[in-house]
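pinned: reference chain
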Amino acid sequence: MPGSKPFLGQILDEEAERVVNGMKAKVKDHYVTGQCNDWKNITKSSIMASTINVEYMSYLLNTCNVSAKAKMAENLLEIALSEIKYASVVLKVKVVAWCIDTGGDAVKM
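pinned: its structure tokens
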């Protein structure tokens, strides 16, 4: 008899797919703005979340643990670009603007 872990993974994967498909139906072909912002969770890990805004509604895209990375503009830009690509390719939206909480070295870029 298998443990519950494979079943939980399958259930979570199916639920995540259901949520993403529902979001796709609501945002496809819309113009959106997006943003990335970070905060510390209970264990003091640095978590960056990405959201898009469509007609006054916000949608969470992804979260990423960035604790192991320096908060440098290049690292944050890499994450932001991957989120913009995800929104454009997977969700089929038209990104018109993106905001990010940049690192202190952003002026050098």
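why pinned: The chain has a mean pLDDT of 86. The beta strands are 31-40, 46-54, 57-65, 94-100.
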